[in-house]
Amino acid sequence: MLSAILKSSSLNRAAQSPLARRAFSTNLPMLQQASQVKQTSQAPTVKNFIHGEMVESQANKWIELHNPATQELLGLVPESTLDELKEATKSAEAAAKEWKKTTALHRQRVMLDLQYLIRQNMDRLAENIVQEQGKTFVDAKGDVFRGLQVVEQACALTSQLMGEKLTVAKDMETYMYREPLGVTAGICPFNFPAMIPLWMFPLSIAAGNSMIMKPSERDPGAMMMLAELAAEAGVPKGVLNIVHGSVDCVNFICDEPAIKAISFVGSDNAGKHIYTRGNANGKRVQANLGAKNHAVVMPDANKQAALNAIAGAAFGAAGQRCMALSTLVMVGETKEWLPELAERAKQLKVGYGMDPETDLGPVITPQAKERAERLVQSGVDEGANLLLDGRGIVVKGYEKGNFVGPTILSDVKTNMECYREEIFAPVLVCLQVDTLDEAIELINANPYGNGTAIFTNSGPVARKFEHEIDVGQVGINSPIPVPVPPFSFTGSRGSILGDMNFYGKSGLHFYTKPKTVTALWREADATHSRSSVAMPTM
Ligand code: NAD
Questions:
Q1: For residue 363, how far is its CA from the centre of ligand 1 (angstroms)?
Q2: In this structure, what DSSP letter does residue 86 have?
Q3: Distance from first CA to last CA of the chain, Å, rounded?
Q4: For the chain, which domains are there?
Q5: Alpha carbon 132 to chain centroid distance?
Q6: Which of 146, 249, 267 to mutate to test ligand 1, by most ligand atoms within 8 A of the CB atom?
């Protein structure tokens, strides 16, 4: 089915520009991630988007794009060549110079049109996400919607980018306004193929920059569709470019002097590398990394509501959310609730994302499935209790899919591998403590600080938790506390590198630099022509 979508979109139109016909010339080192696929395959190829054109890559290395529910080969993603990466940069550099001259009002109009077009194409985008990423159609629409909210924030740039002015002495004013940086870049993970690109390029472009996006090589389709919509909304050629690939493409972005800032979301290893390499090259880098999000269940919690919320947040999206509640801390007698939680989890239907009955789809790759199953086994081997085992699940009609059913490990200890690693699959690890203080201590000792939640009916308990917990996003009876813009995504400690958060005011600040001007226009000069010989006192 996706082949049909790909064929009907300009993704598959081989727009042959002079750029695409350029001779292949690169001495890039061997790639670590690309499977070496010959372009003799019949699968459609994913294009680069350079200077407003969908351009066939001249790559000699291609990455296979599979439907995780079926293993159907959906397309081939190029490891864009060095020439193509340079061409994208050249185009973005030239476009940034002109785009920054446009007014905030003009850019606001473009963003208003973009938000309208995304809304119109919500289902088409969501269907592509189901095919490439595997999540359910409803959840995929949520993926687009949460990104759309950032486009809506970008529409408010006329007030959010407003400067400041103060009279600092007689006839002297200092004023501050924020200027764009020039060329910016975004590097995306696979788990939110629409939302995370939309955290990045709309705010950067609204602020007057150009942007080079590198979507995840595992599901680039939504980004390609968004590029088409951006062009239709009036984003000029070169203001948004898309290149593809993995390690070498990313390293190019880290090293290319014309690129002034990098937004990254993804795993710890890649993020640490990009942050260090980008910083070493003098770039501004914001990097959101991995997570291990704990939910605390207090004995006074509304049991039914808490168990429902936890099952949804632990197993929804097959656990592949950076804010998934992957770790449960049961306080006191609430450990007796675990069998009931397992019952709820068992009722969740695992299957193909377009099936309206499905609650959770496959994980992204066979390797991700194999890793999750191995980590579950490591828990068992280290003494945890396997309360619910979702390994080896087979979905009728989708026997080749990377499915893992909801899995619960209880009696987990903090030294076990299944606790220390981010599993990124529908696997919930449960620990027990006697008091709230112990729960807080346990969570604060974990290196990650992305999100946490407490389930309680006590205001004072919630208040104590909120103040003492060292995690950037706190939910109170709210399982996935991802703030909407105009707040920012405020993961902390090991879940972030860099000081400026995604979206919200901080998001716009990341893509701009402040300039202050101190201006002296003496009113007296309008009427007096004599020089003053006295010492200036301002
Ligand atoms: P990933 O790190 O494998 O990939 C992210 C991007 O980095 C991709 O574009 C990829 O091409 C590139 N990349 C991967 N390895 C690289 C390397 N060695 N050198 C240079 N570039 C490299 O992440 P993923 O598996 O796509 O996404 C899942 C991860 O993202 C999870 O850890 C999840 O917690 C995290 N995530 C975090 C947030 C957040 O806001 N904190 C949001 C979503 C996802």
A1: 15
A2: H
A3: 72
A4: 48-290+492-515 (3.40.605.10), 294-447+451-476 (3.40.309.10)
A5: 16
A6: 267
Give me 184's structure tokens. 């910016």
pTM over 0.85: yes
SS3 393: coil
> What is d(CA 501, CA 508) in angstroms, rounded to the nearest whole number?
9
Q: Report the distance separating Cα 61 and Cα 39, nearest Å.
A: 8
Q: Which residue has the higher pLDDT, 3 or 165?
A: 165
pLDDT band at 538 (very low <50, low <70, confident <90, very high): low
- How many Å apart are CA 53 and CA 16, to the nearest integer? 9
* Residue 279: pLDDT over 90: yes
Q: Is-catalytic flag, 155?
A: no
Q: Which atom of ligand 1 is nearest to the CA of 192?
A: 43
Question: Residue 33 CA: which ligand 1 atom is closest?
Answer: 15
Q: pLDDT by residue (tens digit) across 388-422?
A: 999 999 999 999 999 999 999 999 999 999 999 99
Residue in the block written with tokens 């990009």: 274
Read off the pLDDT of residues 364-395 as tens digits, 9 standing for 90 and up.
999 999 999 999 999 999 999 999 999 999 99
Q: What is the mean pLDDT of residues 339-358?
A: 98
Q: Measuring from each residue's beta carbon to the nearest atom of ligand 1, which residues come in under 6 Å?
A: 187-192, 214, 216-217, 246-247, 250, 265-267, 269-270, 273, 288-291, 322, 422, 424, 450, 489, 491, 495
Tokens of 214: 């590198």
Q: What is the best residue among 33, 143, 191 to mutate for testing ligand 1's pocket, by most ligand atoms within 8 Å of CB?
A: 191
Query: CA angle at residue 179 from 176 to 180, to 5 degrees?
Result: 160
Average pLDDT, the chain: 92
Atom of ligand 1 nearest to the CA of 271: 2
Are 236 and 264 a contacting pair, CB within 8 Å? Answer: no
